[in-house]
């Protein structure tokens, strides 16, 4: 009986991945058919490989919160705060020394990266503490902290974008290593680490347990609070990483960058088979979903759809996928 | 029942006392605060956020959450103003009915997805907000209808005010209070209103007791959408322009105000009076930053901080009552 249950779940999971791959192939085929000259160019795929990793990492951060039945609405605030604090660090606190060699510059950038990731860790810890200690619902806690983080961005910048990041910082967002986009490499590394963590470590499995049945998890003796806190800290750190990549790619940081990423991250999670009520989600699903959506967006951009209509399509797609999932679960 | 009533009274008293204390402090820092002009302006600033907060209150009592009302309000406002200009309509009655209907239809669409497919309200409303806003900006237009192109009847309506001791109090404040009264009557004195509380408290029990839960969900989201649509057009008539990108970010302020007013995000709890006080508190804090000469960039931090502190206090209070 046990085995059968496991088997059926395994098939179900693969069905989800299969459905995703199918959607991706359909999108790819339709776009290639509609815009063969522009869509099928190497340049198009290369530019996608620079842009999608940020969004993919934000979506993974969102998924980590969703696994325990929560949500992290502050990811964009954290990403921007990390980028802006790094920008303040580079331009005001620690301006570049022209006499310093490459080693000095690399050390400066490394310090900036540590600072940004540290900010993400602290911000995530704040979310986690509010959720586990103060017992605030994740939606409200992260809605509030997201506002605080974005507000701090406004206080730090006063509105306009911060520019003037060091060249090595830019490499994180738009450099190439062995002919492959650096952001893509970072994404693959992050995805693999998180995937292994979720499926092969007790921490990951416990997160799924907490999401499936929080009460049972408590009775099973799991230290739920600590696990949830850790998951939000990880989520915050990943959001900060996305912020580093975003500010590196655009060589700027601003309080309202990437605001449309929030909806897209939720959409990618849902499309990728993450259950917003907790207990279900895979990194593989997220990865395929983000690529599918990026192909869709780049195709529509080539057909000169306005960004607003693309927003409409995102929203419609989200509802459609939820409807499909509802039907599948019913069957 | 008695203890619940007492508790409700207590949380509203708390908000009221906080409001009073803040007003005294601001008055000490800047006595100009107590001028009738300033107080009337403050009340006027409550109107739009307040009507939207009533809309969110209804949804929150039903155990859901709504982040789509800003998009619905923008759509109802912009479409109605464009239609008024296209037909050269002179009245205001019909346009307000139209805007309310647009909001109602959008709200019913939310209810359809939430009830039929058992979807999570947050995600449905995130999606529907994006759909409505995308269609509005992508297909209808992005240009602002300025004061010179606004229907005169609408502007005249928004300007109507009462002269009290030399200061002007906008009539819209009374419109807001009338709506609040109607929502209060609906929530506390009708069976459908009570069914929203029952559904939010425990959907399964509400169903077993014999409430038509489908109807409850449709009424809650439909009413929320209708209120948002009405508030949208009222906003245009009060600021004399119609901007399809308006209301972005309102969801935070409004949800904060409703939570400040003591409504529970888990459903089943919340009151109109609490919401009015919560809205007043939020508007007071935002406006007084300016009057206390705090830099405007701090607004986001303060509002976010208020949300976090208020929700933490609510959670703490709820835990105490559960124990």
Automatic annotation (TrEMBL), chain A:
Signal sequence interval, chain numbering: none
Residue ranges of the TM segments: 17-35, 47-67, 73-94, 106-126, 146-165, 177-197, 229-246, 258-275, 282-303, 309-327
Stored InterPro entries: ABC_transp_permease (IPR001851)
Main location: membrane
UniProt keyword terms in alphabetical order: Cell inner membrane, Cell membrane, Membrane, Sugar transport, Transmembrane, Transmembrane helix, Transport
Keyword field contains Cell inner membrane: yes
CDD domains: TM_PBP1_transp_AraH_like
Subcellular location(s) per record: Cell membrane
Membrane topology qualifier: Multi-pass membrane protein
Protein name, as recorded: Simple sugar transport system permease protein
Natural source organism: Ancylobacter polymorphus
Phylogenetic lineage: Bacteria, Pseudomonadati, Pseudomonadota, Alphaproteobacteria, Hyphomicrobiales
TrEMBL record, chain B:
Subcellular location as annotated: Cell membrane
Coiled-coil zones: none
Membrane topology: Multi-pass membrane protein
Domain of life according to the entry: Bacteria
UniProt KW keywords: Cell inner membrane, Cell membrane, Membrane, Sugar transport, Transmembrane, Transmembrane helix, Transport
Primary localization class, coarse: membrane
CDD domains: TM_PBP1_transp_AraH_like (cd06579)
UniProt key word Ribonucleoprotein: no
InterPro entries in the record: ABC_transp_permease
Record field: transmembrane: 12-33, 39-60, 67-87, 93-113, 120-147, 167-187, 217-241, 247-266, 298-316
Protein name: Simple sugar transport system permease protein
Lineage: Bacteria, Pseudomonadati, Pseudomonadota, Alphaproteobacteria, Hyphomicrobiales
């Amino acid at each position: 009986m046990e085995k059968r249950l496991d088997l059926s779940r395994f098939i179900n999971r693969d069905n989800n991945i299969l459905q995703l791959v199918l959607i991706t192939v359909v999108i790819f085929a339709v776009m290639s058919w509609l815009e063969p000259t522009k869509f099928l160019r190497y340049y198009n795929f290369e530019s996608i490989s620079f842009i999608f990793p940020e969004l993919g990492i934000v979506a993974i951060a969102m998924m980590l919160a969703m696994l325990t039945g929560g949500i992290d609405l502050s990811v964009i605030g954290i990403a921007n705060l990390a980028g802006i604090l790094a920008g303040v660090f580079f331009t005001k606190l620690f301006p570049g020394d022209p006499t310093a060699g490459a080693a000095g510059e690399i050390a400066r950038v490394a310090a900036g990266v540590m600072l940004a990731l540290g900010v993400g860790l602290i911000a995530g810890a704040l979310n986690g503490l509010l959720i586990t200690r103060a017992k605030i619902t994740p939606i409200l806690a992260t809605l509030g902290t997201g506002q605080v983080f974005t507000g701090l961005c406004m206080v730090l910048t006063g509105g306009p974008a911060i520019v003037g990041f060091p060249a090595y910082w830019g490499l994180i967002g738009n450099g190439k290593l062995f002919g492959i986009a650096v952001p893509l490499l970072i994404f693959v590394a992050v995805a693999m680490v998180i995937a292994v963590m979720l499926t092969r470590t007790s921490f990951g499995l416990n997160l799924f347990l907490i999401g499936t049945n929080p009460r049972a998890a408590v009775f099973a003796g799991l230290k739920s609070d600590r696990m949830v806190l850790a998951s939000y800290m990880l989520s915050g750190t990943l959001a900060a990483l996305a912020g580093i990549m975003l500010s590196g790619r655009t060589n700027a940081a601003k309080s309202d960058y990437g605001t449309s990423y929030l909806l897209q991250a939720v959409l990618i999670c849902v499309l990728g088979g993450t259950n917003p009520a907790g207990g279900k989600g895979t990194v593989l699903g997220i990865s395929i979903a983000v690529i599918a959506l990026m192909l869709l967006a780049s195709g529509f951009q080539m057909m000169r759809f306005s960004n607003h209509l693309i927003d409409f399509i995102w929203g419609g797609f989200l509802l459609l996928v939820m409807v499909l999932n509802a039907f599948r679960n019913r069957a | 029942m008695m203890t619940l009533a007492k508790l409700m009274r207590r949380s509203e008293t708390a908000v009221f006392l906080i409001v009073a204390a803040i007003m005294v402090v601001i008055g000490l820092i800047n006595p100009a605060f107590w001028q009738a002009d300033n107080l009337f302006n403050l009340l006027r600033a409550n109107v739009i956020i307040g009507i939207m907060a009533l809309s969110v209150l209804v949804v929150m009592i039903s155990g859901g959450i709504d982040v789509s009302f800003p998009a619905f309000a923008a759509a109802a406002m912009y479409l109605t103003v464009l239609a008024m200009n296209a037909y050269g309509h002179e009245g205001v009655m019909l346009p307000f009915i139209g805007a309310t209907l647009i909001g109602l239809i959008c709200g019913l669409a939310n209810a359809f997805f939430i009830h039929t497919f058992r979807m999570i309200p947050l995600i449905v409303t995130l999606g529907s907000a994006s759909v409505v806003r995308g269609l509005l900006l992508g297909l209808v237009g992005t240009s602002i209808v300025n004061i010179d192109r606004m229907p005169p009847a609408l502007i005249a309506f928004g300007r109507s005010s009462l002269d009290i001791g030399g200061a002007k109090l906008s009539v819209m404040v009374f419109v807001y209070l009338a709506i609040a009264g109607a929502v209060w009557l609906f929530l506390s004195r009708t069976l459908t209103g009570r069914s929203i509380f029952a559904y939010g408290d425990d959907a399964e029990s509400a169903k077993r007791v014999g409430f038509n839960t489908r109807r409850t969900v449709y009424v809650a989201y439909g009413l929320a959408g209708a209120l948002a649509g009405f508030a949208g057009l009222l906003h245009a008539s009060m600021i004399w322009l119609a901007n399809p990108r308006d209301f972005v970010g309102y969801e935070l302020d409004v949800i904060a105000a409703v939570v400040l007013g003591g409504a529970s995000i888990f459903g089943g709890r919340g009151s109109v009076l609490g919401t009015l006080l919560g809205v007043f508190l939020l508007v007071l804090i935002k406006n007084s930053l300016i009057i206390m000469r705090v830099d405007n960039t701090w607004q986001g931090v303060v509002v976010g901080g208020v949300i976090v502190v208020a929700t933490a206090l609510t959670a703490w209070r709820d835990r105490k009552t559960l124990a």
